[in-house]
Amino acid sequence: MINMKYCIIVRDNGNSKQIQDFLISKIKHEYSDINPDYVIAIGGDGTIIKAGHKYPNSLIFGIHTGHLGHYANYSVEDIDVVVDNINNNTYNIQDLDLLSAEFVTESGNIVNDFALNEVTIVSPLRTLILDVYIDNDFLERYRGTGFCISTPSGSTAYNKSLHGSVIDNRLKSMQLTEIAGINSTAYKTLGSPIVLSHERRIKLDVAEGFEVPEDLFITVDHISYSLKDLKSLYIFYNNKTLKMAYNKPENFINRISRSFLISKK
Ligand code: NAP
Question: Ligand 1: which of 13, 50, 64, 68 to mutate, judged by most atoms within 8 Å of the beta carbon?
Answer without folding.
Answer: 68
